[in-house]
Design goal:
Phosphorylase Kinase, domain 1; five-stranded antiparallel β-sheet; 2 domains; alpha+beta; D-amino Acid Aminotransferase, Chain A, domain 1; 12 strands
Length: about 250
């Protein structure tokens, strides 16, 4: 089998050249991102769960007419996506106060916001992805005003879709972030939801207990995987008795 050309490697994924022009293969890693506070380098099974959940969300968005870069899942850890030019922004949609918003504004975590609030951060990990305004975005040419109108529309449509899905399985969508990319088709450009949508990029709280079912899940080494598995089980993405996360053992 020919070696694939690696394009990029980040905290949670590796990108390879796709089998066809204009495509990329996304490989979901088990590596723990810095915000995972368990002191682990690897969270076993996280990549499999994120791949399956992102497939579920992206496919659902495609079906309701919200364009994404997702084409199809290739296997348990990889999916085929369209090549796109990523706009250097993290687009954050907040339904409840939490995290940085609570710290900045002194609002108690869990407070429902009067309406969804959309925020933007400049994608640069060296600068810790600082928050920016539409003035910054326009001044530095990261996106046009038409782009920003389209990005806002995409973000709110994703929020409506995700909020409804999660509410139906007893989960509160506190906030989430997406990335947006440009796809060129001849002289025509369109914006699509890119990267991934998974518990790595959302705050998900159980409505009844307040338990965190996302990247901030606390507890022992297995709690993060348990939390992600719970989300997948409730959504019907993975069977309740799935054992895909267990590594094969050698028998002497």
């Amino acid at each position: 089998m020919a070696r694939r050309k690696k394009i990029y490697e980040g905290k949670g994924k590796i990108l390879y050249e796709g089998p066809e022009p204009g495509t990329i293969v996304q490989y979901f890693k088990d590596d723990a991102a810095p915000f995972h506070s368990q002191g682990q380098d690897v969270v076993e099974g996280k990549g499999v769960l994120n791949n399956r959940l992102s497939e579920f969300f992206m496919s659902g968005l495609n079906q309701i007419g919200v364009p994404t870069h997702f084409i199809r899942r290739l296997n348990m850890r990889e999916q085929l996506v369209r090549t796109c030019e990523i706009i250097p922004l993290e687009v954050i949609v907040r339904n409840f106060a939490a995290g940085a918003m609570s710290e900045r504004l002194g609002i108690e975590e869990g407070t429902q916001l009067p309406r969804p609030i959309v925020e933007y951060c400049f994608k640069d990990e060296r600068l810790n992805n600082p928050m920016v305004t539409e003035e910054h975005i326009a001044a530095f040419g990261w996106a046009s005003q038409q782009d920003m109108d389209d990005i806002l529309s995409l973000a709110l449509r994703v929020n409506d879709f995700m909020s409804g899905l999660m509410l139906g399985v007893g989960i509160r969508l506190v906030d989430f972030k997406i990335e947006v990319g440009r796809i060129y088709e001849g002289d025509y450009q369109r914006l699509v939801v890119a990267d991934e949508i998974s518990p790595d990029s959302c705050r998900l709280w159980d409505i009844e207990t307040g338990r965190k079912l996302d990247r901030e899940s606390h507890g022992g080494p297995g709690h993060l995987t348990d939390a992600y598995s719970e989300v997948a089980r409730r959504l019907g993405v993975m069977p309740k008795n799935a054992s895909h996360m267990v590594k094969p053992k050698l028998i002497n």
